[in-house]
């Protein structure tokens, strides 16, 4: 009977790679039912009475089948997510996933992309509770007494955090595809860092990601800011890295809205030095000269908000004898904002945008001529603004019924009212 049972489990594990999703779903459900029954009626006798035995061997085979190196199991993993609500399944899933990643990465010189995608889908599905539960939830229930913590099922939340941390560190130490690299960084600040036992262990990963440049650096800034703000990480080059990301391409990247949302968060502190805020305002003003209208409608209120938060920077607007382009002391090629001499310059770029062809842009640029009110202008509705939306808004606007035209009424055919031609032609 034991031999027949093992053969059945092996066959069900093979069916996890079946072309039909219905077959894979039924095989997964059957295997998880076997896990539950084998835990209630263990095949091996416990060493002492009341010991809790979790069917690790069978469960590791299930997780190994989900982490296929050939097929995309994202849909099947979404079905498996419902089991991760149970504390014991979640705990042993993290252990089994860590072992599977280590084993597959060691066996193959170049790990297939399908495996990395399946592994990331499974790892990102694991979400720890924010606080300890009074009554833990178990999928595998022992037939006898209430299970003890010897099998890892009743381990406290701190133990779950350690296993969660080991799982992610083991995954991130490998060379990941660029697409997964971005997905990890997107979810780092809210789905990974809060659940780690020691979040500061992610410093090396985030700092190396920040040095890559482009969208990778942009996405790594949020995780770094969390470590700086909540875990006292000292990273003196943080704002220098952020300043270096302000390039003309920042208005056209996929993560533009996310970048400016984070930049608004990073520059919200009133304790930042005036030269640093002035450098960001000046850099954005210079980039605004070549930005599209949908970006300008967001950048101009952003600059005004910086001036509202830091009154010392308002000298950029009210400086008498504003320099022109050829005499502007600001150095746009300087990578260090402290050496850019932005505080000695002025925002003549914003004044130039007051003559912009789009009326809403010129109106937004004219706000800087007024006394800036204390309530900041919300840029949240403008972060996702696109050129298509601006075009649609302009089409929906209703113009005046009568449009005034500038013309000189005709006085005669040749410019005089009483010329000879009026005898033959009548002007109406």
What does this structure look like?
There is one protein chain. The chain is 51% helix and 0% strand. With 428 residues, the chain is mainly α. Helix 2 (21-40) packs parallel to helix 4 and helix 3 crosses helix 5 (87-107).
Shape: elongated
| Structural category | mainly alpha
Largest sheet: none
Question: What oligomeric state best describes the polypeptide chains here?
Answer: single chain
Question: Residue ranges: pLDDT <50 for 5 or more in a row?
Answer: 144-154
How many strand elements?
0
Look at the structure and give the mean pLDDT.
83
Measured by DSSP, the beta-strand proportion falls in: under 5%
Number of helices: 18
C-alpha-based Rg, rounded: 32 Å
Helicity level: 40-55%
Query: What distance separates the N and C termini?
Result: 109 Å
Order of helices and strands: HHHHHHHHHHHHHHHHHH
């Amino acid at each position: 009977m034991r031999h027949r049972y093992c053969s059945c489990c092996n066959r069900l594990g093979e069916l996890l790679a079946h072309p039909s999703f219905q077959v894979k779903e039924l095989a997964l459900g059957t295997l998880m039912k076997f896990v539950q029954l084998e835990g209630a009626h263990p095949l091996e006798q416990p060493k002492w009475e009341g010991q809790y035995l979790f069917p690790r061997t069978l469960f590791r085979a299930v997780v190994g089948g989900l982490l296929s190196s050939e097929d995309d199991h994202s849909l099947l993993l979404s079905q498996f997510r419902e089991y991760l609500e149970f504390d014991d399944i979640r705990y042993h899933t993290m252990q089994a996933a860590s072992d599977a990643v280590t084993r597959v990465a060691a066996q193959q010189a170049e790990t297939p992309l399908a495996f990395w995608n399946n592994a990331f889908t499974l790892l990102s599905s694991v979400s720890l509770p924010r606080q300890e539960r009074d009554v833990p939830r178990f999928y595998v229930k022992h037939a006898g007494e209430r299970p003890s913590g010897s099998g890892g099922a009743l381990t406290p939340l701190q133990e779950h955090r350690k296993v969660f941390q080991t799982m992610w560190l083991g995954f991130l130490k490998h060379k990941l595809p660029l697409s997964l690299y971005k997905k990890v960084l997107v979810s780092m600040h809210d789905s990974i860092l809060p659940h780690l036992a020691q979040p500061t262990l992610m410093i090396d990963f985030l700092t190396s990601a920040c040095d890559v440049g482009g969208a990778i650096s942009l996405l790594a800034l949020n995780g770094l800011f969390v470590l700086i703000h909540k875990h006292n990480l000292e990273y003196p080059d943080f704002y220098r890295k952020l300043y270096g990301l302000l390039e003309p391409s920042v208005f056209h990247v996929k993560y533009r809205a996310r970048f400016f949302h984070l930049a608004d968060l990073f520059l919200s502190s009133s304790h930042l030095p005036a030269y640093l805020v002035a450098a960001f305002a000046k850099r954005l003003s210079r980039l605004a000269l070549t930005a599209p209208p949908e970006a300008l409608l967001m950048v101009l209120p952003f600059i005004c908000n910086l001036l509202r938060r830091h009154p010392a920077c308002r000298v950029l607007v009210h400086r008498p004898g504003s320099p022109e382009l050829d005499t502007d002391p600001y150095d746009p090629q300087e990578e260090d904002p402290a050496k850019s001499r932005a505080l000695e310059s002025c925002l003549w770029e914003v004044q130039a945008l007051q003559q912009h062809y789009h009326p809403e842009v010129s109106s937004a640029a004219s706000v800087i001529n007024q006394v800036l009110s204390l309530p900041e202008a919300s840029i949240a509705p403008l972060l996702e603004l696109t050129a298509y939306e601006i075009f649609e808004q302009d089409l929906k606007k209703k113009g005046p019924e009568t449009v005034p035209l500038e013309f000189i009424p005709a006085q005669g055919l040749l410019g005089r009212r009483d010329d000879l031609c009026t005898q033959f032609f009548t002007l109406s």
